[in-house]
Amino acid sequence: MPTMADVARSAGVSVATVSHVLNGTRPVLPHTRQAVLDAIDLLGYTPNTLARSLVTSRTRSIGIAVSAISNPYFTEILQGVEAGALAEGYSLLIADPHDDPRHELKAVRLLHERRVDGVIVAPSAEPRDLVAYLGRHAVPTVFLDRLVDEHLDGSSVDPPPFDQVCAEGAEPMAQVVAHLAGLGHRRIGLVAGLPGLSTTGDRITGYRHGLATAGLPHDARLVAHGNSQSAGAERATAALLALAAPPTALVTANNAMTIGALQTLRARGLRVPDDIALCCFDDFVWADLFSPRLTAVAQPSREIGAQAVRVLLDRLANPDRPARTIRLPCAVVHRTSCGCPEPSTWPWPLEPPQQPQPSQQPDYPEHPRKGSVS
After folding, report:
1. Gap between the Cα atoms of 287 and 222, Å rounded
2. Where are the alpha helices (H) located in the chain, listed in sequence order?
3. Band of pLDDT at residue 46, cut at 50, 70 and 90
4. Crossing angle between the packed helical segments 170-182 and 198-213, to the nearest 10 degrees
């Protein structure tokens, strides 16, 4: 197996120069750098990752903690993270926190103990201990999909800032609700996610804003929490249908809850959209295969993952840079489950929301939320 010394002899340089090229520890003239790279390619030299990490104090690895890895949405996010990391020469260590605050802390601690250069985390609904740990150990961190409150550690001073990357949830939800109202619906139900997640808070805020835009009152009885799971959505949908005046349209706040809602509607013999209109948050590959085809909010899941990697690597290169929160735009994908005709005859296509600047926050009515919003 060729060694670094073999590369140095082939390139006509010192072993130290080869080390600087491999580790980026000192500038090297372009023609010298190219000679080293050519020698590496010619000899088939493979750098010793462990030895390199001892020199640079970097392992070129990223830890990612994301719950519900089997969820198609998070699977696509992971694909974006992997592609972004691989393009920059980083490997991934993956953990599933199971949306359990205690397991979440343990999973991130284990990633940290394996000396990853930084972590990307989709936090639970109660991330206080996680935030305290990451701040105490100054772990370079990007929160993914779900945002956290700045003061969760309960200290008297501001905790260390964290970068965050997510999709804009309120605006597309408002568009969907306003669209249903435009079709004549006056009682629009929402199957909301797990309380405490920022995605849940954002989508409830968008739901209320959509009602206000359409001149409809907010009726708290029309919001039922499915806790971001299929089984929970079955129960929530059943509760909404049991109201004295049940909704004529339903919006589900993630893909798992869409499945649960559809199961309950089918069990009750209700047809979509003839008996009840349905729109959902999260577009997925098979949404277009349902009959009727599902009108959905499409999140840029792969881009969220890739952007999180870019932000983390930027943080590693610029540790003192101010923290930032980046919200990526979604698009409403119109199909027929809301009661619209096929696309060729749509009279009212809605434009996808324009991408807000990272520092902008949409001007919606505040919705009380616990701990964090998602």
Report:
1. 24
2. 4-11, 15-23, 30-43, 49-56, 72-87, 101-113, 128-136, 170-182, 198-213, 230-241, 255-267, 301-317
3. confident
4. 40
The residues, ordered by sequence, that sit 6+ positions from 164 with a Cβ below 8 Å of its Cβ are 142, 143, 144, 147, 148, 323, 324, 325, 326
Q: Identify the CA nearest to 356 among candidates 180, 214, 167.
A: 167
Distances (CA, A) of 13 to 16, 23, 44, 222: 8, 16, 17, 73
Confidence grade of residue 44 (pLDDT, cut at 50, 70, 90): confident
pTM as predicted: 0.76
Per-residue model confidence (pLDDT) at position 365: 38
Question: Which DSSP string do the residues of 314-338 spell out, in sequence order?
Answer: HHHH-TTSPP-EEEE--EEE--STT
Distance CA 154, CA 91 (A): 34
Residue 294 amino acid letter: L
pLDDT band at 199 (very low <50, low <70, confident <90, very high): very high
For residue 204, give Cα distances in angstroms to 26, 94, 222, 255, 340: 51, 30, 11, 16, 24
Q: Is the torsion defined by CA of 331, 333, 337, 342 positive or negative?
A: positive
Alpha-carbon span 22 to 44, nearest angstrom: 14
User: For the ranges 68-77, 144-153, 261-270, 350-359, which has the lowest average pLDDT?
Assistant: 350-359
Report the distance separating Cα 14 and Cα 2, nearest Å: 15
pLDDT tens readout for residues 89-134: 899 999 999 889 999 999 999 999 888 999 999 999 999 999 999 9
* Beta carbons of 271 and 297 less than 8 angstroms apart: no
